[in-house]
Amino acid sequence: MDEKIHKVLARAGYGSRREIEGWLREGRIRVNGQVATLGDRIRGDERIQLNGRPLRLRQVVPRTIIYHKPVGEVCTRKDPEGRPTIFEHIPRPAAGRWISVGRLDLNTSGLLLLTTDGELANRLMHPSSEVEREYAVRVLGPLSEESLQQLREGVMLEDGEAHFHAIRHAGGEGRNQWYHVVLREGRFREVRRLFEAVGATVSRLMRVRYGPIAMPR
Predict the structure, then answer these.
(1) Annotated catalytic residue: which of 40, 45, 105, 159?
(2) Domain boundaries, the chain
């Protein structure tokens, strides 16, 4: 039975479906010596190369791990500025490579999922899946009821309207107040930008849940 090449390579742990689709568009993958294109199908017994390097399509058991990312690490494999990356602190998988399910920026800590299963990574990250991401957010000063209502109903950001699917006050002392918020998408710095849109300053941000998986206490 044949399958689309990007699905086969993703399942084998060579990258997410989105990454592999990009490699196909760039002509970096060859099948039996011929440049492969998006939509090509394979049986699994072909000679496949990525950037001239042969790929093995052996059956492996996918692995998925939880990593508690600290502030100060980036989610790229190599950083041009020389900052530490998450991949320097996790063990290498026996087969395939780790794919980060979504990213956390330099100043955000918390739950990060990594998997060797590109198909799983694609399902968890694709906007159509609407997987919930929950964050604990510390802001300076309590939010007014009007601001909370705006964040629930939606505010306009530079890349379109956005809102929290849930927001609740979680305590605090003095000007340091904590809120728990839930999103169903993963736009760049979305949590920080939403709070900034109502005049609030985020002083700490931590992801505590991705879908059904919560940060262990």
Answers:
(1) 105
(2) 3-55, 64-125, 130-214
Q: How far is CA 66 from the centre of its chain?
A: 12
Token pair for 175: 């000007």
- Rg (C-alpha) for the chain, rounded Å, is 20
Nearest to 120 by CA among 66, 67, 62: 62
Chain length of the chain: 217
- Is 117 noted as a catalytic residue in this protein? no
Say how far apart CA 135 and CA 115 lie, in whole Å.
21
Fold of domain 130-214: Pseudouridine synthase (3.30.2350)
Q: Any bridge partners for residue 37, and if so which?
A: none
Within the chain, which residues score under 50 in pLDDT?
A: none
Three-state secondary structure of the chain: CCEEHHHHHHHCCCCCHHHHHHHHHCCCEEECCEECCCCCEECCCCCEEECCEEECCCCCCCCEEEEEECCCCECCCCCCCCCCEHHHCCCCCCCCCCEEECCCCCCCEEEEEEECCHHHHHHHHCHHHCCCEEEEEEEECCCCHHHHHHHHHCEEECCEEECCCEEEEEEEECCEEEEEEEECCCCCCHHHHHHHHCCCCEEEEEEEEECCEECCC
Question: What is the CATH T-level fold of the domain 3-55, as seen in this structure?
Answer: 3.10.290
